[in-house]
């Protein structure tokens, strides 16, 4: 189980964590605000709001695990 989808693309089995692309967009917004003169101390602290669940079926088959249909239906993406 990993926290980021990149590990699953590299061969991991499951990941559930924040969407990195969305996090980078939020970071860019903060940089833009600071560049326009907002004091960093005045910016709110945010937590990730978009999470994704990714399953790698190729890895599951390689290690002999059969993924239940309920898990596959809940996944945001299934890598085959």
What does this protein structure show overall?
The chain is an alpha+beta fold and 80 residues long. It is 41% helix and 18% strand. It has helices at residues 5-9, 20-35, 57-62, 69-74; strands spanning 14-18, 51-56, 77-79. The protein has a three-stranded mixed β-sheet.
- Outline: elongated
Strand order within the widest sheet?
A: 1-2-3
What is the succession of H and E elements?
HEHEHHE
List low-confidence stretches.
none
Share of β-strand residues: 15-25%
Number of strands: 3
Mean pLDDT reading: 93
- Sheet of most strands: 3 strands, mixed
Q: In which range does the helix fraction lie?
A: 40-55%
Q: Report how far apart the termini are.
A: 17 Å
Provide the gyration radius in Å. 17 Å
SS-based class: alpha+beta
**Total helix count?**
4
Please give the structural blueprint.
Blueprint: H1 5-9, E1 14-18, H2 20-35, E2 51-56, H3 57-62, H4 69-74, E3 77-79
Parallel strand pairs: 2-3
Antiparallel strand pairs: 1-2
